[in-house]
Amino acid sequence: MIQVTRLNGATFHLNALYIEKIEAMPDTKITLTTGTTYVVLDPLETVNARITEFYKSVQLLSNPHLRGEKDEE
């Protein structure tokens, strides 16, 4: 789950596994695989960073190449 902020300032948590796409319009629009959309105050880059951290925490990015690590020698 990632925390995002509604336009009215209220925060809520969103399951990052259901995110289909994110757009900057200039507010950030998040579309889920269910078709539900949310417009949030958080910048696109911040949302992307939170998603990446979430994926790492649940080990979806456990492959060293996906994490950007160099080959071990």
Summed up:
This protein has two helices and five strands; from the N terminus they run βββββαα.
Description:
- It is built from two helices and five strands.
- The protein has 73 residues and is an alpha+beta fold.
- A three-stranded antiparallel β-sheet has the order 3-4-5, with no helix packed on it. Strands 1-2 form a two-stranded antiparallel ribbon.
- The protein is elongated and about 45 Å long.
- The model has no long low-confidence stretch (mean pLDDT 88).
Annotation keywords:
three-stranded antiparallel β-sheet; alpha+beta
Helix-strand pattern:
EEEEEHH
Global mean pLDDT: 88
Q: What is the helix fraction of residues, given as a range? A: 10-25%
- Biggest sheet details: 3 strands, antiparallel
Percentage of residues in strands:
25-35%
Radius of gyration: 14 Å
* Gap between N and C termini: 35 Å
Low-confidence stretches at least 5 residues in length (pLDDT < 50)?
none
Topology:
Elements: E1 2-5, E2 11-14, E3 19-24, E4 28-32, E5 37-40, H1 44-57, H2 64-67
Antiparallel strand pairs: 1-2, 3-4, 4-5
